[in-house]
Structure formats: structure tokens, C-alpha cells
Amino acid sequence: MPFRIVCIAVLARAIEEDCASSASALSDTDVDRYHKDGYVIIRNLFSAAEADVLRQAIETDPLVASNDMPMVDAAGSRSKLTLWNYAGNDTFGYFARGKRWVNAARRLIESPIYHFHTKVMLKEPRVGGTWEWHQDFGYWYQVGCLEPDKMLSAILAVDNHTVENGCMQLLSGSHRLGRLAHGVTGEQAGVDKEALGKAVKRFSLVHATMRPGDVLFTHSNLLHSSAPNESPSWRRSLIVAYNAVDNPPRAGTICPLPAEAPLEPLFDDAEILTRGVVRIDPGRDFLDHARNAAQFSAGSN
Questions:
Q1: Strand ranges (DSSP E) for the chain?
Q2: Parent domain of 44
Q3: What is the pLDDT of residue 185?
């Protein structure tokens, strides 16, 4: 068989395998539920062994802890997050740029996408604070993104997420309200209290309990929060935000433009286990508290 024909056949097979991976990750029912309810939980999108590699990376990579941002809630308690814009060639990048996760996000957004940011959420035992009720688009509108249907967050459970350790709470279907006004609550963006009061009466409250490896996909306008972690157990998450290429922020904000944070080339999912823990490049663009606060204070101007 001529070499050119062999190459074309191999490429076609790779594309078919990518599509098959995407199809197996999300069913038509999953996609319909996401659009109807504003969220969907995919159980075991990653195996327990893969989630354990991620846990080890969080615990052993010194750049995760040394670049965290403590975010104070209305009561003065703190939750921590470490955030960066560019998915690299490390353990976190193997997840964020892995075919399984990217293809699932593409199917929900229904458009070519890029890496908006990755963050590690850290709710410490006994002391991890509240995340106030908000919409992610309450932040993202501030940087000039205009189409909430083209943005989502994908939350991978690293530990068990339970009611006791402050799992995410969400209002099912609340993404249909559109973007609501947000203000500052503690050091966090919080949704307008009057609007929240009406939404709580209209939409069902869901506690998103998950096991390691489960992934929760949330529409950017979905109202969500989390209670304090009053348990003896950690609640940690890897959250990857994806955005459509044709829904960019303004230039010069804390968020990347599509050309600055491409997902390609995608990683084969097998690399998570075969490579194990690979540390973050010390030159990574971690977001600091001052830049974050300045951007939100500047608003959408």
C-alpha cells in the first residue's frame, strides 16, 4: 500500500477514535440534561487511579500551595484557589488538554474551544470557607466575553465531595435567568441578594455530591455556591474553564485570548497514568490576588 494511503488511513482512524471517545464520555441524554438544567455530572469520567495521580500532584507540587489565593467569604472564613491561564505539559495539562475532557466540552459548547483557565480549589478540613452564590459569567462578563452559552466550567472531584465537606450547591435550571448583577461579598463576587432570593424560590436546590474522578459540567450562568467545610476531610477540585474561540475577552485583561492559550496538540488520555506526576513549569502565569481584585473592581469598562 502506498505510504500516502497508509498515512491517510491512520489519520482517519485517529479521528474516528477521538469521536468515539467523545461519544462514550457524553450520551445524548447527558447533553440534553446540560442544556435543560445548566449542569450535568458525568460519573467516572476519570478513573480513581487517574484522580489519585491528580491528588499526588496537588500535594507534592510546591507551586500549587505557594501560589494559592485565599478568598475570604462574608463570614471571614477562607477558601483557597490556585489559578493559571495556560495549560502546560504537566499533570494538570494532561487533564485539561486530554482528548476525553476536551471533546466532552466541545460537544456541550458546540463550537471550537480554547483553554480559558485552570484552577485548583482547596477546601481545607474544618476551616475551608463558603463560596458565595454567584454565576461564573458574573466574572467573565467583566473581561469582555459576551456569549454565556459558549463558556463552561468542568469540575473534577479529587476527593469525595459530600454535604459535610461543603460540596457544590446549585440551582437547577437557573442558567435560564441570564446574567444577574454581582457585587463584592467578602473578597468574592456575589450575586445580587434580591435576585438570589427570587431564584431560590423558583429553582430546585441540588447538592452536587461526587466521588474522585467524577466531573461536573456547569453552564457559565448557573447559580452555584458551596458551604463551609466543617468535616475532617479535604475537598479539592481541579476546575478547567473552556471558552469558544469566537467569544474572546478584551485584549489586556487577566484572561487569555484564543491564540494565547490553545488546547492543541491534545494529549492522549493514557499519558495521565504513564507519565505520573509531572510538576508545573516554574514560569507559569499564576494569577495573584491583587490582579484579580483590580480586574473585578475595574468592571466591564
A1: 39-42, 69-72, 78-84, 113-123, 131-134, 151-157, 168-171, 182-185, 188-191, 205-208, 215-219, 224-226, 235-244
A2: 27-298
A3: 64
